[in-house]
Structures are given as C-alpha cells and as structure tokens.
Amino acid sequence: MISQYREIKKKYPDAIVFYRMGDFYEMFFEDALTAAPILEVQLTSRDKSAENPIPMCGVPHHSATNYIQKLLARGIKVAICEQVEDPKAAKGLVRRDVIRVVTPALVGDPELVSEEATNVLVCLEEDDQKRIWVATVELLSGKFRLGFVDSFRQLLDLFAQIGPKEILITATTRATKWFSDLISLFPTMAITQRNFPQQATVEATAVAAIRTYLRETQKLDQLPHLEEPKALFESETLFIDSTSLSALEIARSSSVGCEGPTLFSILNFTFTPMGRRKLKEWLEHPSTSLHSITERLDAVEELVSHPLLSENLSKILSQIRDLERLTTKTALQLAMPRDLVAIREIMKFVPLLQQILSGTSHLQRWQRLDPLKDVTDLLEQALEDQPPATLRDGGIFRETFNPQIAELRGLAWNAKSAIAAIEAREKEATGIPSLKVRYSKVFGYTIEVTKSHLQRVPSYYVRKQTIAGGERFVTEELKALEEKIFTAEHKLKALEEGLFNDLRKRVADCTAVLLSNSKVIAELDVLAAFSRAAKRYGYIRPVFHSGYELKIEQGRHPVVETLLKAGQFVPNDTYFSEADCRTLIITGPNMAGKSTIMRQVALVVVMAHAGGFVPAKSAFIPLVDALYTRIGSSDDLTRGRSTFMVEMTEVARIIGCATARSLILIDEIGRGTSTYDGLSLAWSLLEFLHNDLRAKTLFATHFHEITALEKSLPGLKNANVLVEKWKDEIVFLHRLGSGICNQSYGIEVAKLAGLPSKVLLRAKEILGLLETQAQRANRARNRALDFHNNQMAFFGVEKAPE
User: 791 falls in which pLDDT band (50, 70, 90)?
Assistant: First the structure.
C-alpha cells in the first residue's frame, strides 16, 4: 500500500495527496507533516515500532470538504486519490488513482467556495514588444479571457480587480523583474510551474497552457462549459480601474476592520446566487452600449410600473437555486443525485417565466429561455424527489424508471424481511429472549447471544466471534441469505451508478443551453432588483444621450442617504457642458461634504450605465467611456512609495488613459509636498485637464489660489460647499453653491474632532500672528511694486506685471 502511495505521490509532488482508505482520506510522510497542523488533526505514525515510523494523519471522507477548504486557503493543492475498482473484485491491493486535483483557482465543486467568490487562474507571457499577455479562466463559470496590458502598472491594476488565486508559469515565461515583483506583491497567490510546449505566439502559448492544465487537474478530455477565449477588456463597458472601484466603494467597503455598506449591498435585492454575481459584474463593468442600457432601463421601468408583474417574477426567482454552478458541476462530472434534482426543479420554472414575460412590452428579450422539456421530463421520470447525497447510498431512481431496479430492490427487501423472520424463529426455538441478528461490515450478519444464555445455543450454531457481552454465531441458512442480500445490493448499486452516470452525461450535453438559461435568469434577477431598489429609495429613470452634457438635478449619494433618516440627506445639482462647464473646482472646509458630492456624481453615472434608476429628481447622462478618481491619501510601504508618490502615480495614470469622454474626480492634489510645490502641480494639472484633455472633471482643493483660473479659462467654474458660522460654531450645510470658499475653518473642524481647548486657543493665537505677518508682507510687496512701477514709468518703460 505504501509503495502504491509513493508511486502516486511522485506524479503530484506539489499537492497534498488525499489517499482513500475505507471511510478516510489518509496522508503520509511530508504531506502528513504539512497538513496535520493546518487541518488541526492528530499527527500519528504507521509502523510505530520501526526505526523510522511513517508520519500519517487522516480525515473522514464524508467531511473532506471542510478540510480541503483549509488547505486551499493556504494556497495548497489537493490531489483526490480514490479506489477505482471494487474491493471485492480486486486481486490483491485495490487499485487507486487521482480522480482530480483541486487547486486554489480550479475549484469545480461549488460547495468549496462562497456563492459570490470568483476563483481565477491566470497565465502570463511577455512578447517581443514588451506587452504582457494575460489569459484568465474561471472554472466555475467557464469564462475564458485573453488580452494584453502595456505596462506593469496596468497589470497590477488588473490583478487588483480580478484577485487571481493562482498564477501559471510556463517554461517560456521570461524571468523579468516585473514577474518577481508581482509575486512579492501577491504573496497569498498560489504559483504553479509547468513545462508546457511553446506555440506559434505567446498568446497561443498562454491559452494552450491553461487548457492543458485544466485537463491535467480535472482529468477530463472535454470541458463543455468552457467558452472560447474572449477579449480581456470588453469594448462596450465603462472602464473603472481598481483605485476607483475602491474609492467609490462599489462592491467592497474601504472601512478598516468592518464590512461597511457599498453600492452593491444597498442595491442587492436579488434572489439568486447568479443574480448577485451578475449585479456585481454590471456595477463594476457598466455598459456603454446605448442600445443595451435602453433595453435594461425599459425593463426596469416596466417592472416599476407594474407591481403585480414584479411580484410574480420575484416569487419565481426566490425559488431558483444556482443553475450556473450546478451546470458547471455537472459538466465536470461532479454532480450528485441531489444536484440533478435541483436542475430539474429549476427547469420546471422556465415555462412559468416564459408565460409571465410573454405579456410584457419590454421584457420579451429575456423570454429566450429553453425549458429543455425532453431532459426535464427524463429527470422527472428517473430521479426520486429526495435522493441520497451520494451514489454509494442507493435509492437514487424511481422503481418505475427501470424494471431491474424494482426487481433487485424486491430481492433485497424480501431478504431483509427473511432476516427478521429468522430472528423471531430462533428466539422461539432456543428460548433466548435477548437473541439478536445483527450486521457488521467485518463479519456480515451474525446471531448475538449474551453470556447468560450461552448454554442454550444449539449445536448447528457456528461460533464466529467473542464479544464483551457474549458470542456471535452464524448458521448455514443465515450465510445463504446474506449472500443473496449482498448479491442483490451489489447489483443494484452497480446498476444505479451506471444509470446515473449516463443521466449525468445526458444533462452535461445540454451545458450550453443550461448556461444560457442561467445568464437570462441572472439578468432578470438584476433587473427586478433594480426595480425594487427604485421603489424602495425613490429613484428615477435617467435620460441618456450620446453628447457631452451631464445634468443631475437634486442628486443624492445612494449609500450615504441610506445611513441617514428619511429626508436628512441634502441633494445637490451638477452640471457639465463642453462650452460652459467642463471643469468644476470645489472648495470648502474638511467635513463639509466635498467628497460625498463628488462621489455621488460618479455613482449616479455608474448606476445609470449599469441600466438602473438613479437617486435624483432628474438625470441627463452622456455615455462615459471611463471613470477615474484620485480620492483619499495612503502610502504603499510594501513598494517603498510615499503618500505623495502614490498620489502622483495615480495622477499620471489618469493623464495617460483618460479621454474627453471620461469622468474624472480629483480630491486634494499636492497636499503631500511643500505648499508651493503642491500648488504649482495642482495648478498645472488643472490647466492640462481643462485645456488638453477636456474631460468632465470635479476638482476639489484647499489651494484657494487656483480658483482665480475661472477668470482666464472659459468653461471652468468655481463652486463651494456652503458653511455658516453661528455663535463661534460652524454649521455644515452640505449644499453646493457657486463661487469660492476663502476660509479653511480648520480650527473649527479640529474642535468638532475633540482637540483640547488649550491646543485650539494656542492655534488661534498662532493663526492670528501668521495672518498679521502675511498682511504686512503683502503691504510691503505692494509698496515695492508701486515704487518699481513709478520708476519704470519715469524712464518710459512699461509696468511690471502684477
């Protein structure tokens, strides 16, 4: 057995081998030493009396899922090694082999991952033009993507968005510096290295490597759910980089140590797991197709306008399970009887969905569902309503499905009834009231007699085993009956297993249709969720156009307003036009609400492009190609970058990628360096964004000098978040007004934060002194300028510029 284990382990040196022995998965040698502390199981040894005992540990087969999850979380692969022949038919050692390898990225069983998780495998190759080709695959959905990035910075941004669990390194992958940097920046990512054959191009090499690796791990020649590679970056989506996704808290909260609310969480009125994944996809990758957006908005509007339609749709969606992952599980030949029953029950709802949608005006596009009547009927005829969780338990099929099933079950049942009759007869014949006929895996059926009645045992009883309380015996009649039962049960199990494998393959042949149905149901779920959110929060339908102008009347922040009492949130107007207002400079003290107002504009744009209604009185939205933000201060110590360096890197990214159709949010540029450095950089950046890029830009700043640009740059406007003073206190109005705020109110904000009065009073003294010195310096400068200009005029020279 150990020799067999060693041969198998040689083939999977980078995985923990779960070696099946009876009801346990055993681990030996270095695998046991590695796994035992992670799995928190007892480390023991085989051949304890030997000079070098073999370390070993084990986990129960029926609860292996929990243990596999723990290893995957550590980036460790697991090779599942099963008995691949019937022990009764084996001549000597039972043959075993690895039936699949579970890796951190390639998890085919949905029970091993959360409903919202996306486990992504990536393969990277660099071409002669220094482009980095990226192939990605998500096994549970079958999504396959291929594309390239031009720089390491873009690659980091991509990784931050998709969060790959595993990276595949081929023999042709160049050992460039960026590769080692990438590995160090994502230390929890599993690394797999293989010598895959080189193809004609580096992109073909990456695709072929992934396909080969999938066949190696899944032990399947075909993966019917795996799509052909599509573009890594879809052309008709609004691009939101990872920095902006984080800053806007679209699907993940930036709150430290807690799960704060996000745009996703407040819009998540979905019922199905695939609907939740689709909602996240639409919010992180909104559409820029006017046709698609209009179709979604029409559908949401119809659901909002027809409450009964929405209610009927919700009733059905609330009963539908994760068809996408059930289909994938079937395609990977991992589905068990209950999984096929779940698919059957989901498919029964398809005709009901079609019936509901048939009478609608704008939802008929989502009527393109296929009920797969033949397969659904077959599953109904074949499977019990409550089948067992696994194949080994039997009782999978209805007796009416196959005449042999009824026959063999009858034999097994009648034989068991005969066992009960033997027990009753032997009790009466021997006069032993405690006599029992019992079954054990080792000895089969035996007659148990307690010690106090052993003298009554008849001569035709053959002693089999001594137990603590008595003896076990067998008879010729009992052995013959046992053989009959085992033969019938063995034949029945083999029959049901064969029939189930055929049935699972029949369902797997319908993978493409099932996945298409899943996509339609997911989209319906999101549209219904958008309509429920619109009614719950009072959202309106945005009006889209292909021009430049953006106008939001009484816009609200969709997340912040849910944290306040009804009516407390102060709405604000936003307006951009190419001629009158391409750039809006926003001033105002900290805590006044500048960031909230900026973010709410971005979130309204995202929600509208996703096809949902928005929090506003009215919204006139242009098609936007990308959304960029530079909000919040942070450093990147792992890469030796200061806050200011991170800030400048993000600004460089925006300048390098944004177009006139982009929306840009910049908050407090230049605060990480000296005043004049920061001011000059912020000033120059603003001029570039306004004059050269011409994108819609919200630019919040504390450099009040920049507001003077309104006089010299047509299309640039000043706005400020209004504040009032009352009895030495400041009151934030959270309302955006025209003009500038020429006070910082820093000391007042510090007072609200709870700084000691002694510190605040001293700060006021210092502020007064600094302001007096500044005024004196300005007066001296003005006098000097006057004298200089008078002297120049005396000699007939033009004045110096002021």
Answer: low
Return the DSSP state at 474: E
The helix/strand/coil state of 335 is coil
Residue 699 is encoded by which pair of tokens?
């630019």
In contact, 669 and 647? CB cutoff 8 Å: yes
Coil vs helix vs strand at 627: strand
Cα dihedral sign for 99, 104, 107, 109?
A: positive
What are 485's two structure tokens?
């039962």
Mean pLDDT within 574-597? 89
Confidence at residue 638, expressed as pLDDT on a 0 to 100 scale: 44
Dist. CA 749–CA 590, nearest whole Å:
7
Q: Dig out the tokens for 653 from the structure.
A: 């990214």
The strand order across the sheet containing 618-622 reads 543-545, 618-622, 550-555, 572-576
Q: Which of 119, 105, 123 is closest to 209 using CA atoms?
A: 123
10 Å CB burial of residue 311 (0-12, 13-18, 19+) is exposed
Q: Are 748 and 741 in contact (CB under 8 A)?
A: no
- Mean local confidence (pLDDT), 448-471: 93
The Cβ of residue 618 has, within 10 Å, a number of other Cβ atoms equal to 15
**Distances from the Cα of 496 to the Cαs of 90, 299, 457, 489, 493, in angstroms?**
21, 46, 41, 10, 5
Q: What letter does residue 540 receive in the DSSP assignment?
A: B
Q: Could you count the other beta carbons within 10 Å of the beta carbon of residue 59?
A: 20
Give the residue-averaged pLDDT of 358-363. Answer: 92
Work out whether the CA dihedral 518, 520, 522, 525 comes out positive or negative. negative
> Over the range 164-188, which residues count as b (16 or more CB within 10 Å of their CB) and which as e?
bbbbbbbebbeeeebbeebeeebee
DSSP state of 306: -
DSSP calls for 253-301: ---TTS----HHHHH----SHHHHHHHHHHHHS-B--HHHHHHHHHHHH
Of the chain, the percentage scoring pLDDT greater than 70 comes to 90
Residue 614 CA from chain centroid, whole number: 25
Segment 280-303, tens digit of pLDDT: 999 999 999 999 999 999 999 999
Q: Quick one: average pLDDT of 38-57?
A: 87
Residue with tokens 């040894």: 45
Among the listed residues 113, 500, 517, the one whose alpha carbon sits nearest the alpha carbon of residue 320: 517
pLDDT for position 418 = 87
- Considering 114-118, 555-559, 718-722, 729-733, the range whose residues carry the highest mean pLDDT is 555-559
| Confidence check: pLDDT of 50 > 80 | no
Place of tokens 């779920």: 525
Long-range pairs for 421-430 at CB < 8 Å and ≥24 separation? 422/477, 422/478, 422/481, 423/447, 429/458, 430/456, 430/457, 430/458
Burial 472-496 (b: 16+ CB within 10 A, else e): bbbbeebeebbeebeebbeebbebb
Asked whether residue 567 carries a pLDDT value surpassing 90, the answer given is: no
Cα separations in angstroms, 125 against 104, 212, 531, 639:
21, 16, 44, 23
For 229-244, the three-class secondary structure string (H helix, E strand, C coil) is CEECCCCCECEECHHH
Judging by beta carbons within 10 Å of its beta carbon (0-12, 13-18, 19+), is residue 265 exposed, middle or buried?
middle
- Using DSSP's 3-state secondary structure scheme, residue 579 falls into coil
Q: pLDDT confidence of 646, banded at 50, 70, 90?
A: confident
Question: In the structure encoding, which two tokens stand for residue 695, read together?
Answer: 């994108």
CA distances from 477 to 195, 443, 464, 482, 677 (A): 62, 15, 15, 9, 100
Q: Please give the residue that has the higher pLDDT: either 783 or 725.
A: 725
